[in-house]
Amino acid sequence: MTGAQPGWQGDAEAIAGKTMQAIAAASTMEALRQVEVRAVGRQGEISLLMRQIPTIPPAERKAFGQLVNRLQQEAEAALAQRKEQLIQALIDAELADDTFDVTLPGIARPRGHVHPLALVTDKVESVFTSMGFHVLDYPEVESEFNNFEALNIPSWHPARDMQDTFWLDDGHLLRTHTSSGQVRTMHQFAPPFRAIFPGKVFRYEATDASHEHTFHQVEGLMIDRHVSVAHLLDSMRTLLTAILERDVEIRLRPGYFPFVEPGFELDISCQVCGGKGCPVCKQSGWLELLPCGLVHPQVLRAGGLDPAEWQGWAFGLGLSRLVMMRYGVPDVRLLLSGDARFLSAF
Ligand code: PHE
What we know:
Elements: H1 7-25, H2 29-40, H3 45-50, H4 61-96, H5 116-130, E1 134-135, E2 141-142, H6 144-147, E3 173-174, H7 182-188, E4 193-202, E5 214-224, H8 229-244, E6 250-254, E7 260-269, E8 286-295, H9 297-302, E9 311-318, H10 319-327, H11 340-343
Helix pairs in contact: 1-2, 1-4, 2-4, 5-10
The structure holds phenylalanine.
């Protein structure tokens, strides 16, 4: 063995030296990437050195392999370091650039909107809670008992036809009104109590601009001693004035529902013309708003209460209707359409 360098060592080191220079000279990320491909890519010069092993005399192969490995590691370390330098230089340049205006407003991203039904529900809930009402949540899938029987609507009762029902295979149903929670509440709380229960209700109906198979109601129920129609009238006026945020006149007309006695349709003074008469109220000065009445003794009994001791009033407010009145929505089907153009108007 002579002490002289084998020829391959000089070749390999020359290639590595050239690569190091190219790395140092690369002034952009793209240039650096090209150097990387040329040196350590699959067909890169350093990678190809490794494949020369069969041409090296066997006694020198180990030393050759070690050298190429080292050169490759050095090249990769240099590439990584240069990459960091270039990134840092980019950041520095951007910060130093005095055309960078930190007072520019950011990029506006489209924002979500609270659904008008949620807006109105929140409002109704806050008015009622401020007056001592519980806000309750009851199931949408109900028993026939809670939705009908307990409300004085036995299966043969013609009033069942007023609310076409989605029946489930197991005999349950989708509640047709939030009144399904009345008897639940009577079982849940000891009287006196007052509560509202908002939620979705379902009717097996063809849809049009004023009918939807799924819509929203809020039920109000108050149970106490010596409750009369005078309480109902005054409570309704106070509540509606708070919800609509203006003085409203109300009037009651007789209305029939098997679970209230007496039952009423409640009208409010027309919010458009102030009661003088206009096309919206069909010149009457009144708008029909909600049905209500005194809780029927049969319902109190179904709820385990003695009608001689306890009475109450109940109302069923159509939230979908209220939203339409409040925001001038022309078609109830828009409410559940999920149409972003509609929602973005709120
Ligand atoms: N549940 C009735 C309906 O949806 C409305 C109602 C509620 C009437 C409470 C009177 C009292 O048609």
